[in-house]
Amino acid sequence: MHLLHRAGQCAADLFQTELGGDDLTPRQFAILLTVAQNEGVNQTQLVELTGIDRSTLADVVRRMLKKGLLQRRRTREDARAYAVKVTDEGAKILKAREPLARRVDDRILASLPAQHRDRFLQDLGTIIQALDPLGEKESAGKSAGAPSASLRRGD
Fold it and tell me: Are 122 and 146 in contact (CB under 8 A)?
């Protein structure tokens, strides 16, 4: 447990260093990327897709709304739910930061011998699938897959 936590801390530190002190956090990046890949996603779906708990996600989304990175509107299907969308500013930030985040992924994986990298990602996916209570609900019976490249850092 401690080793996973430390690895996550190191990855987050590397992310912050690579982005040059930018105020975009790994969680904000994960949310921005996930919303961009799932246009109109609601906040409940964002919780499921990112693994960020509901209250933390709501707080982070609020801050991202204030920064002008995201916008939200009530959904047609459920007036209580919000659909979240990336703004033009959010898309600009994402386009600029995505190559840096990929470089972080590459640097992390470069710490492992090449022949172990795919297995490492598969093993992380297996751990997440086995232990994530949200994942159990939606992926019962599915085979374990590696986390997406954008979310490897545990954002």
Answer: yes
The 3-class secondary structure across the chain, one letter per residue, is CHHHHHHHHHHHHHHHHHCCCCCCCHHHHHHHHHHHHCCCCEHHHHHHHHCCCHHHHHHHHHHHHHCCCEEEEECCCCCCCEEEEECHHHHHHHHHHHHHHHHHHHHHHHCCCHHHHHHHHHHHHHHHHHHCHHHHHHCCCCCCCCCCHHHCCCC
Place of tokens 């959904």: 75
Domain count, the chain: 1
Residues in a beta bridge with 74: 82
Give the tens place of pLDDT for each residue, 63-101: 999 999 999 988 888 878 889 999 999 999 999 999 999
Domain with residue 135: its CATH number is: 1.10.10.10
State how far Cα 26 lies from the chain centre: 7
| pTM, two decimal places | 0.79
As a whole number of angstroms, the distance between CA 124 and CA 146 comes to: 7
